[in-house]
Specification:
heterodimer; A: alpha+beta; Aldehyde Oxidoreductase, domain 3; four-stranded mixed beta sheet; 30% helix; elongated; B: alpha+beta; Ubiquitin-like (UB roll); five-stranded mixed beta sheet; 2 helices
Chain lengths: 145, 77
C-alpha cells in the first residue's frame, strides 16, 4: 500500500508500471487491477480554464489517504493499493490523481477503487483554484460523479 | 492553554493569514476557537474543521497543544 502527494508532474502509466514491478511477491495472486486516472480539464462550469493550483493540508491529507487505504483493505479482499495525487500548479491534460487496486477477482478491485476515489473527492483535504481569462477563482464543490 | 489555528484555501485568503496561536480558556470549543480566531468573519455554513488532523465537530472541546484547522469544502481528485 502506498500513498503519495507530490508537486512534481507524473506519468500515471509509468508510476503504475514501476509500482507493479515492486509487487513481485504478489505475482500470480492478482487477477484484477482496477485503475482510475483523473486528468485536468480545460473547462468548468461553462468557462475555459487555463491553469489550476492545488493546495493540500500537509500531514492531514496524507494521513487521510492512508486511513481510507487501510479501511479499503479491511473491507474488501484486495492485495494492494496505490494513490498518487498532485499538488501545486497544473495545466490542462496534466494527470491529477491515480488510484489503483489489485485483487484476485475484479469485484473487489472495482469496488475498492471506487470507494477510494469517492472518499478522496468528498473528504480528502485538497482545494483547487482555477485560472480563467477573467482571473482566479476557488472551486466551490466537486461534481457529483 | 495554547492552541495553534490554521486556515486553508479561500479561508486563508479571507483571513489574510495562514495560522495564528491562541491561548483560550479550558473547555473552549472548536466553534469558539473560530469566533476568536476569525474575529469579524462570520462562520460559513459549509465550514469544515479538524483537530490534530482529524475531522472534528464544532462543539468538540479543544485541549492544550491542539492544532485546529478550518477549511472550505474539499475539491481534490
Amino acid at each position: 500500500m502506498r500513498v503519495e502527494v507530490r508537486e512534481a508532474p507524473f506519468d500515471p502509466w509509468d508510476v503504475l508500471r514501476c509500482y507493479q514491478d515492486e509487487l513481485a511477491d504478489q505475482v500470480g495472486r492478482y487477477g484484477a487491477t482496477a485503475v482510475f486516472v483523473g486528468t485536468m480539464r480545460d473547462f468548468n462550469e461553462g468557462d475555459a480554464v487555463q491553469a489550476m493550483t492545488l493546495e493540500h493540508y500537509p500531514g492531514m491529507t496524507e494521513r487521510f489517504l492512508e486511513d481510507i487505504s487501510a479501511w479499503a483493505a479491511s473491507q474488501w479482499d484486495i492485495l494492494d493499493s496505490l494513490i498518487v495525487h498532485r499538488i501545486g500548479p497544473l495545466w490542462p491534460n496534466d494527470p491529477i490523481v491515480l488510484v489503483a487496486v489489485w485483487s484476485a477477482h475484479r469485484a473487489a478491485a472495482f469496488d475498492a477503487s471506487r470507494f477510494l476515489m469517492e472518499e478522496l473527492k468528498s473528504r480528502a483535504p485538497f482545494w483547487k483554484k482555477e485560472t480563467l481569462a477573467s482571473g482566479e477563482r476557488w472551486v466551490q464543490k466537486n461534481t457529483p460523479g | 492553554m495554547t492552541i495553534h489555528v490554521k486556515f486553508f484555501a479561500s479561508l486563508r485568503e479571507q483571513m489574510g493569514r495562514a495560522e495564528v496561536t491562541m491561548e483560550p480558556d479550558a473547555g473552549t470549543t472548536v466553534a469558539q476557537v473560530w469566533e476568536h480566531a476569525a474575529r469579524d468573519v462570520p462562520m460559513p455554513d459549509n465550514l469544515l474543521a479538524a483537530v490534530n488532523m482529524e475531522y472534528a465537530n464544532l462543539d468538540q472541546a479543544v485541549s492544550d497543544g491542539d492544532e485546529v484547522a478550518f477549511f472550505p469544502p474539499v475539491t481534490g481528485g
